[in-house]
């Protein structure tokens, strides 16, 4: 046997697969992991510091778009950098005075924003993207009642034809990396016929096919119900402050002082990952990329999501209201909602939408995308025995939550990650 410390805590499980597993965090990723562990007969306890879906999994845009799920650091994102600091109306916001951890994140993020790094990261996304919708079908077949919806139309909308060149090039790159994505440039007139909610200000669009969406609050609630219905325990108000790996299990310590032992633990705490990560050997920082959303009434609901890439705003029909979401604000997750960001989103989309009352807003929300500087999730084993990490999905934790949960369940049972998760090694 090697005398080197073992990065992979797998051998412990080859003798005895875990019977009881704690998942920390009841968002899309944690709940999906819990559900797929239950598929394998594992008893799960989900600890959630607040309530089910309290994090980013609640107010997001709900897009299940494997055709668009790509790593965030890319050369075009850098163009926002200067504007972000100079203009409060920019869709990306950076505080003028960044603290040390934000600076560290930004330096590394910029270093990863090259075309070569993006291609490499994209190649890692493809196997996950390809299985992402199928994983939702497995949840549906297994009794998760909230459904996903095929997007009748999915349009990325622009004021001018030349504005869409960037996304067309990116989609072609995504396809060149092996991702099956069908898309078509369409003139503004055609876009307005397809979606009468669009105004004459939409001068060009790209239609993307084969994508889906969901109602995030409903879905996350129904996933939690399914976990409970299968005998899982969800401890709301269970704020985990420490993990104590030891022989034969891991103690999960809550703020109340209570400690309970489990055979293994999966940390799926979204943008707050850093708080528990220090003793797990994970060096990648997870930075909150805060986004905002709200819902408004529409006289005529669009037949599918609308995307305004220049403004970085996403609109999704959720029952009788349109959810409008956007912004990338690098601030602390607990900072209060900044109403100026909501106004910036409203002003950005107002010229493009008709019959939508952007002033009758409900459910104004801010939440934190868990962003890593290389744009890759963290999913796999950590340096602490029997402790696993699942998160860091940035812009795409809803679409990729279930497939991550599926692969994490395999990882926990075997004690080592399957090949699809290799690029997401939390110890990279
Ligand atoms: C505006 C916006 C739009 C978005 N649109 C999309 C989209 O269209 N499609 C898509 O795929 N993704 C989208 N995303 C990203 C997506 O929302 C996230 O990637 C995803 O929700 C992350 O899921 P998660 O389970 O990792 O984290 P979260 O949902 O944040 O869940 C983590 C949970 O852990 C809990 N927690 C944290 N610390 C502790 C602790 N110590 N003890 C116990 N519990 C703890 C938190 O309370 C939280 O409930 C969007 C995000 C935003 C902000």
Structural features, described:
The chain has 428 residues and is of the alpha/beta class. The protein has a single domain, classed as 3-Layer(bba) Sandwich (FAD/NAD(P)-binding domain), CATH 3.50.50.60. The chain is 32% helix and 25% strand. The protein is built from twelve helices and 21 strands. The strands form four sheets. Strands 4, 6, 7, 8, 15, 16, 17, 18 and 19 form a nine-stranded mixed beta sheet that branches. It has a six-stranded mixed beta sheet with strand order 10-2-1-14-21-20. Helix 2 packs parallel to helix 9. It is globular and about 65 Å long. The protein starts with 10 loop residues before the first helix and ends in a 14-residue tail after the last helix. The N terminus is likely disordered. The structure holds flavin-adenine dinucleotide.
- Number of E-state strands: 21
Going by CATH, the architecture would be 3-Layer(bba) Sandwich
- Beta content comes to 15-25%
Flag low-confidence runs. Answer: 1-14
The whole-number mean of residue pLDDT values reads: 92
What is the helix tally?
12
Classification by helices and strands = alpha/beta
CATH T-level fold name: FAD/NAD(P)-binding domain
Biggest sheet character: 9 strands, mixed
Distance between the termini: 24 Å
From the spread of the alpha carbons, the general shape counts as globular
How much helix is in the residues? 25-40%
Number of individual domains: 1
The CATH class is identified as Alpha Beta
CATH superfamily: FAD/NAD(P)-binding domain
Radius of gyration: 21 Å
Ligand roster? flavin-adenine dinucleotide
